Amino acid sequence: MIYVVFVEPETPGNIGFLARTMKNFGLRDMVLINPCQLENDSYYKAMHAREIVSNRQEYSSLEEFIKINKIDFAVGTTGTAGGSYNIPRIAVTPDNLAQNLNEKGNIALIFGREGDGLTNQELELCDVVVSIPTHDVYPILNITHAAAIIFYELFKTEKAYPVEEIDEASVEEKQDLIRDMNEVLDHLDYPDHKKKNASTVFRRVMGRAFISGREAHTLKGVFRRIKERI
How many angstroms separate the CA atoms of 50 and 22, rounded? Predict the structure, then answer.
């Protein structure tokens, strides 16, 4: 299941526009985090996607939504991609995400506030971050424009990507590797602030790599040997 999550929307009209865009690409599960008051404009702008607005879920925080719905893979979005020293904002492009995404279970596509986007703390909850390359003159896209680009990239590769040939690592296998990494960091007596960054980097690398089951098995063996040596 793919959830489309809108964090703290500020204008009712954008909620309707997002619902309309979702329906264009076959998505139907809308989640609003601490939204503004919905008005008739939300339903008017949704046009033939009013049922998506009507059936929306609402939560007080992103953490609450992820925990209650047992999200297996969270995709954050940002208009300001980071470099090597802004780890939470290291991003992939929508086409790269679409070509590699073959996650089973519950997926969340998370869009931030109209003005400020997602915070670094919210992005740290995500397994991978997506950013859309734009012109320097006006680099920030409206949320519904950004959503349309990401939805399109996912939709157009839906059947073309040869997922049947890939033995993809399960959610449990990936979580095991992240736990192994954190255990290694604990044994190394890493300072807390460096351990948090290292853990986030490893989780992001895992998210971008879309590793196979065989690769996960091999890495599990490597971590086992590391822990034995330590």
Answer: 11
Can you give the pLDDT of all 230 residues of the chain as single tens digits?
Answer: 999 999 999 999 999 999 999 999 999 999 999 999 999 999 999 999 999 999 999 999 999 999 999 999 999 999 877 555 566 677 889 999 988 887 678 999 999 999 899 999 999 999 999 999 998 888 888 999 999 999 999 998 775 444 455 578 888 898 999 999 999 998 888 888 888 899 999 988 888 887 888 899 999 999 999 988 88
Return the exposure string of 169-192: e unless at least 16 CB atoms fall within 10 Å of the residue's CB, then b: bebebbebbeebbbebbeeeebee
Q: What is the DSSP string of the chain?
A: -EEEEEES---HHHHHHHHHHHHHTT--EEEEESPPPP-HHHHHHHGGGHHHHHT-EEES-HHHHHHHTT-SEEEEE-SS---TT-GGG--B-HHHHHHH----S-EEEEE-BTTTB--HHHHTT-SEEE-----TTS-PPPHHHHHHHHHHHHHHTTTTS-GGG--BPPHHHHHHHHHHHHHHHHHTT--HHHHHHHHHHHHHHHHHH--BHHHHHHHHHHHHHHHHH-
Q: Determine contact, residues 101/92, Cβ cutoff 8 Å.
A: no
CB 206 within 8 A of CB 178: yes
Contact 21, 151 (CB under 8 A): yes
